[in-house]
């Protein structure tokens, strides 16, 4: 569960938006303005990287070379601990055959070899020497080995050698030294985003093919939230990117196992729209072809115009981006960051437009509006062109659309209780009439679904909608988790599938209950799991101590580590949440947090910032009529160290 992208939405007030039809961003691509690199990095291997592992990766990457995956990049840990006769040398245990032989092997596969070097006195990892003061010699060394690509890191910088200069000034002195020494035959990647070097302001002038935009220099967390955070940061900086000098939000996660296929496809879509490097972090053999081997999506990333997508609109949850392409087409992204399916629309301007969704291959035409129901955490990628082609109109097929503005959670159903689910068809494209419509809703085994309104319609003109209301009943024994609903729309011109996710949860019983005894519907915690009836403890589950605040011990409650969020389903039948808020005594006087209660979309109570030196503070919140309650522990304004946040004696009263 994520909070809206406030920074990205706010950026719309300061950054110029782009119009969809036509483009002023049509600068030609000149000599040396290469597309963003594609390939594989050894970063996930860390210091377990070996010559054999790199050869194996090259073998697995070679089948993807026709799509553009040609760079095999060895991250840190390839260097020997010391120079040999003043020259760089590979670690003899990890790379016994040497880099020149390895480059020959990689080249024999039709691929290119990349190495990491450091602008400082030491490598970022592995203990090898940096290139500070030896830029010309080191550049000559790696070129003699046949290296095609250098990733220049920012570690162990001798700042004392640059009195009176800030980090940016030092970087602007050091990076051009290596760029010039390498010459035009070696691609140069600036890997120096630490918050102070601001490479996007000067990387193009320094001759960098790519430059980092996020602040993560370790293997990226393989999670949806982390990926979106990185994208948001990148999106705020792409205005400085262009042909031959590309913003680099870092590696692709597909194949690592921490996200769903939909989320991996979303990352690939956002990276392609941004003209970002497509560098795999998982082994090439593990990267799913359905995500990383779509040639039409790759063509957007590699488009020679090189202009990254900019925001057309964003409200923090739902984003529309557009990117001009060399032949006059546009790539348009509809990205649903939220936790439920939602319809996202944008105007293409006057005229008739052909829109191909590049992941499915579906082609439609429209007289000006592009609209689709986008699943939670998904991004659709369209190639849009002016065309008189005869194609079916854009049809917006919604399954369980949001019921109110800001409804960002899946609809929640109770076991054994009948609820209403809506499907809606809109002839958005308006290029022809839809005829003989029929909608079917498919539910999991054991569920019941019956139409309460007609599920067929004779026709639908442009701009008209056809809505069906369904009575949906999960069985009494339905699992308390998210479930998929699918639907099929058929009409005289073809068929279209739709889907939505609904949650099954049980509301608290009547009377007063301890919330810690009830199952939550969503949870996130900064460090370790949220613990029931004990403090947060450490990283492992079940390692907490009795909840104790200011010397007072509590038998019941939840132990979290701020920032944390715990959500419960209430079904509109509860009235009051009460708890004692405080930082657990296990961290002494350290730690700080603000304890909040959110009812549906609004905050209804909070404690104010409490520290480990303060006693517990009682919080009482009215949640009357709310379908969901969310308990939030926010960071107290400093770092997250020791923020062991206790919701002690936590109760809820329901009707």
From TrEMBL:
Pfam families: Melibiase_2, Melibiase_C, NPCBM, NPCBM_assoc. GO terms for molecular function: alpha-galactosidase activity. The keyword Translocase does not apply. InterPro entries: A-galactase_NEW3, Aldolase_TIM, Galactose-bd-like_sf, GH, Glyco_hyd_98_carb-bd, Glyco_hydro_27, Glyco_hydro_27/36_CS, Glyco_hydro_b. Its EC number is 3.2.1.22. Residues 1-26 form the signal peptide. Gene3D superfamilies: Aldolase class I (3.20.20.70), Golgi alpha-mannosidase II (2.60.40.1180), Immunoglobulins (2.60.40.10), NPCBM/NEW2 domain (2.60.120.1060). The keyword Disulfide bond applies. It comes from the Bacteria. Residues 509-654 form the Glycosyl hydrolase family 98 putative carbohydrate-binding module domain. Belongs to the glycosyl hydrolase 27 family. This is Alpha-galactosidase. It comes from Nonomuraea pusilla. The lineage of its organism: Bacteria, Bacillati, Actinomycetota, Actinomycetes, Streptosporangiales.
């Amino acid at each position: 569960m994520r909070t809206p992208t406030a920074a990205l939405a706010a950026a719309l007030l300061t950054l110029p938006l782009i119009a969809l039809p036509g483009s002023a961003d049509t600068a030609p691509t000149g000599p040396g303005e290469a597309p963003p690199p594609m390939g594989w990095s050894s970063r996930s291997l860390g210091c377990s990287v070996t010559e054999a592992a790199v050869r194996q990766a090259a073998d697995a990457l070679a089948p993807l070379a026709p799509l553009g995956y040609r760079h095999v990049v060895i991250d840190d840990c390839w260097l020997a601990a010391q120079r040999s006769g003043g020259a760089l040398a590979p670690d003899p245990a990890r790379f016994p055959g040497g880099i020149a032989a390895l480059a020959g092997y990689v080249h024999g596969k039709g691929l290119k070899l990349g190495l990491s070097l450091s602008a400082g006195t030491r490598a970022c990892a592995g203990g090898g020497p940096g290139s500070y003061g030896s830029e010309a010699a080191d550049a000559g060394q790696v070129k003699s080995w046949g290296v095609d690509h250098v990733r220049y890191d920012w570690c162990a910088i001798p700042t004392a050698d640059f009195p009176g200069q800030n980090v940016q000034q030092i970087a602007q002195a050091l990076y051009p030294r290596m760029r010039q020494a390498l010459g035009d035959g070696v691609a140069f990647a600036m890997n120096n985003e630490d918050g102070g070097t601001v490479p996007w302001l000067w990387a193009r002038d320094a001759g960098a093919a790519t430059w980092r935009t996020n602040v993560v220099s370790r293997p990226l967390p393989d999670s949806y939230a982390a990926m979106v955070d990185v994208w948001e940061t990148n999106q705020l900086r792409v205005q400085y990117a262009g042909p031959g000098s590309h913003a680099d939000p870092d590696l692709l996660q597909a194949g690592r196992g921490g996200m769903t296929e939909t989320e991996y496809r979303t990352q690939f879509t956002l990276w392609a729209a941004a003209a970002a490097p497509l560098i795999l972090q998982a082994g090439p053999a593990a990267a799913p072809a359905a995500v990383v081997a779509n040639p039409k999506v790759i063509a957007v990333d590699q488009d020679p115009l090189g202009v990254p997508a900019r925001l057309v609109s964003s409200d923090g949850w739902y984003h529309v981006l557009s990117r001009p392409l060399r032949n006059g087409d546009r790539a348009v992204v509809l990205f649903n960051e939220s936790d439920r399916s939602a319809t996202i629309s944008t105007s293409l301007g006057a005229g008739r437009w052909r829109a191909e969704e590049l992941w499915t291959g579906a082609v439609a035409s429209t007289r000006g509006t592009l609209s689709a129901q986008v699943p939670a955490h998904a991004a659709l990628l369209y190639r849009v062109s002016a065309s008189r082609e005869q194609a079916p109109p854009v049809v917006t097929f919604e399954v369980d659309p949001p019921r109110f503005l800001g409804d960002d959670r899946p609809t929640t159903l109770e076991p054994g209780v009948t609820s209403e689910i809506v499907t809606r068809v809109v002839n958005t494209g308006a290029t022809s009439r839809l005829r003989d419509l029929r909608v079917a809703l498919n539910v999991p085994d054991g569920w019941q679904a019956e139409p309460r309104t007609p599920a067929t319609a004779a026709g639908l003109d442009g701009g008209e909608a056809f809505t069906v209301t369904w009575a949906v009943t999960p069985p009494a024994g339905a699992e308390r988790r998210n479930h998929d609903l699918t639907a099929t729309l058929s009409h005289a011109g073809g068929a279209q599938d739709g889907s939505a996710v609904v949650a099954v949860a049980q509301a608290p019983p009547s009377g007063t209950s301890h919330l810690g005894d009830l199952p939550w519907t969503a949870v996130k915690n900064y460090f370790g799991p949220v613990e029931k009836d004990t403090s947060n403890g450490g990283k492992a589950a079940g390692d907490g101590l009795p909840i104790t605040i200011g010397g007072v011990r509590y038998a019941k409650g939840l132990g979290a580590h701020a920032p944390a969020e715990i959500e419960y389903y209430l079904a509109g039948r509860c009235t009051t949440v009460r708890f004692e808020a405080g930082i657990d005594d296990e961290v002494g006087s350290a730690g700080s947090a603000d304890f909040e209660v959110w009812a549906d979309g609004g905050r209804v109570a909070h404690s104010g910032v409490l520290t480990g030196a303060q006693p517990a503070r009682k919080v009482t919140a009215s949640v009357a009529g709310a379908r969901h309650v969310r308990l939030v522990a926010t960071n107290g304004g400093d770092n997250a160290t020791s923020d062991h946040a206790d919701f002690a004696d936590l109760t809820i009263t329901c009707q």
